[in-house]
Amino acid sequence: MKMPRRGSLSATKQALSVGDVARRSGVAVSTLHFYETKGLIQSWRNAGNQRRYTRDVLRRVAVIKIAQRTGVPLTEIREALAALPDSRTPTAADWRRLSQRWRVALDTRIAHLTQLRDQLDGCIGCGCLSLSQCPLRNPGDVLGGDGEGAQRLER
Amino acid sequence: MKMPRRGSLSATKQALSVGDVARRSGVAVSTLHFYETKGLIQSWRNAGNQRRYTRDVLRRVAVIKIAQRTGVPLTEIREALAALPDSRTPTAADWRRLSQRWRVALDTRIAHLTQLRDQLDGCIGCGCLSLSQCPLRNPGDVLGGDGEGAQRLER
DNA sequence: GCTTGACCTCAAGCTTGCTTGAGGAATTAG
DNA sequence: CTAATTCCTCAAGCAAGCTTGAGGTCAAGC
After folding, report:
1. Is 0.90 topped by the overall pTM?
2. Counting one residue from A and one from B, how many pairs have CB atoms under 8 Å apart?
3. A45: helix, coil or strand?
């Protein structure tokens, strides 16, 4: 959390060290290592076996973090990024496709939570929670009806 | 998932075995064991050291599951239930208080996701994701501004 | 009275998403 | 050149919320 002593770039203009990326993207170095083992980002090594990144990685990390905020698990993010031709860094067009896809999931999540809230409103004070009658008790319409994908996302 | 051979009740009318509770509440036996170790439900033992429950446990489990659906972690559920005088099973009035409290959290969650969705809409296609400009990149207004409670719930 | 099936108690494992630590090598500021 | 950083690679740990397994007891049906 201290200010870097050197400029935020390594000597070479293009290549970013793992520390550079951490500072600029706001994620921990260990997280970048972790993302790499999971195939979400890539790097090459310099003569001394240290990781070097292109600037692209910053955008990739940005996309990862936004997708996570919408509730998308890392494996799906990895797949979505890997599905890009050449696994390249998302362009504006790629980003449009990705974000629209994730937006649908986000909408679904919001819809489920809203439905739950409405049921909660309807039931507050009734105290019944009866298995056959109470909509809150019988999540079939929310969980069963929508398949288990919903469960995974909502839980 | 097979039909029980005997009626769904143990011989004694009042006491439910762990299997009875599992069948009636829809959670696994192991989950009931787990909830008990976490102090969410209680039981006594019969002569043969087997768990016995009153019918109350069904309502408690119902409340637990609903609270979980709204995103409340088990520790908070435990505290909320424990805060009831005598740790008794929630009455209609208790349920009203609990559900209203959890409703607020649910509202917050929905609000955050909705805000995120709107930002996503605003940004779809722009592809900028610039650190200083893009609202999606700078989650300060959502995460930082609302404290880390939001992060925990949303992640 | 014997065979199932239901229960019991630990202990360990699983998933997701990372963090922490140990032990050592490379880089860089002065 | 040297000391302070930074970085490296595993391995292990953590939190939540359960599940699975081993080894053994209890209860119920025929």
Report:
1. no
2. 108
3. strand
